[in-house]
């Protein structure tokens, strides 16, 4: 049981962790921090957090666990602010979609206290934002990836593991680079592609006609293009090395598809479509 | 009211037209044709069609309307087969996802009877196939695009319009080239991109790890990659000119995104993500 938990960013993810741990009886008190006072008050009135002390970062000194649930680009400032106040037994963990970047940031900000930081990434979310969207079941049956550091003691890793298991998630342990490469492929690149497709339609001279003829395929393919541009800029930049590698490979694949189309090479086109269709159907059946 | 309707291809689309017109009382008898005898028997036992006469294409002579609901690549053979048997008052229409290609095919196959062919494309569908998936409400509230030919009399266009309105669809009239360009942009290109993304993941050395970390974003983005490879090869090839134009523009956009990522140009990246996000949200709110 966590005596006192500090949550930075009381939106969908941070709020849902607080609610899940409360529902499980795994936390005594939750202190909320947020750059928005309105969001903070909303979270408190909804019972997502028990108290808030945005001006008093020093209050993290009394916390057993500090959870960073803010956009990737904001984590650095928070880590620097809390570093001087960290008690030796306080676990710091995060929920960011990229890991190598935040690990570098944390090393700079926490210095010798880096062993207290266990990087994490729950594979859960949704298009809805804010504390109102938070709910105790968000992580149920989902995976959370932890990418422990060489400096982490097994005790700290176990505490992070229990936190996520108490939220209903199953924990997967990976190297941070493997995490970032995998997510670049199945999440970050698709977001970039969906944004680009919608931008291309929007910029065409007959955008309104096109959009009026768009159906369910367009709706599903572009759903992630409605995601927060700020959050996804942060992620794309934080993981740009891996994302660029995936993007370049994808550009190569598109060029080869273009060649097949130009040559009207039905067999070669079919081979790729068929491979993808089988892979996708197999994946669906394993979910 | 249509006295006798011939439906070539008694799957999801053809079967749903038959069921919708029957439910509305707008058709007397439905004769089914299909390359698969098993599908044909299934359609008959489900009451989707009233009779079938696959060996007797000559029986279309007694039909008021002939609906082609087969993959784009098969329409040519059928049009050639029925051409000699077409009575002067028989309306021929289709449901293909591309229009310029089928119009060229129809001109060659029907010759002087081309005025009897009114090209159409209902913007409805789903991942499920076959007569079992067909239902009378499939087109309710959906659009059907008609791309009439100069040779069509207004009477023939009106009959095609009424057919789709009786199915519950609203009819949009467009030039075939405008239809093909719009669909290349909002449907055909997204399919190509989704197939390519899944193929890229499948071909990577750590495909299983990647797929195990794929979440709801991947699921929605790649849903259309589970579509029939045969059908989408036909569509991609039939509409390759417009699809190639969209693909080349998209490759240019990806190249510019890559440059922005390399330069860590957050403002330029944000501008595109934000434009796309607003466009997508506006579109959703209009649905």
Oligomeric state of this protein: homodimer
Radius of gyration of chain A, whole Å: 21 Å
Tell me the greatest interface: A-B, 92 and 92 residues
What separation lies between the terminal Cα atoms of chain A? 31 Å
Give the number of DSSP strands of chain A.
9
Strand content of chain A: 5-15%
Mean pLDDT of chain A: 95
Structural class of chain A: alpha/beta
What order do the helices and strands of chain A follow? EHEHEEHEHEEEHEHHHHHH
Poorly predicted tracts of residues of chain A: none
Name the overall outline of chain A. Answer: elongated
The largest beta-sheet of chain A arranges its strands as 3-2-1-4-5-6
The DSSP helix count of chain A reads: 11
State the major sheet of chain A.
Answer: 6 strands, parallel
Helix percent of chain A reads 40-55%
Quick overview:
Chain A has 11 helices and 9 strands. Chain A is of the alpha/beta class.
Descriptive notes:
- 2 copies of one chain form a homodimer.
- Chain A is an alpha/beta fold and 287 residues long.
- Helices cover 52% and strands 13% of the residues of chain A.
- Chain A contains 11 helices and 9 strands.
- Chain A has helices at residues 12-24, 37-45, 75-82, 100-110, 154-166, 176-203, 207-212, 216-222, 229-238, 240-262, 266-286, and strands at 2-8, 27-33, 51-52, 65-68, 91-94, 117-118, 120-122, 143-146, 170-173.
- In chain A, helix 3 (75-82) links the parallel strand 4 (65-68) and strand 5 (91-94).
- The longest helix of chain A is centred in the middle third of the chain and has 28 residues, at 176-203.
- The model of chain A has no long low-confidence stretch (mean pLDDT 95).
- At the A-B interface, helix 6, helix 7, helix 8, helix 9 and helix 10 of A face helix 6, helix 7, helix 8, helix 9 and helix 10 of B.
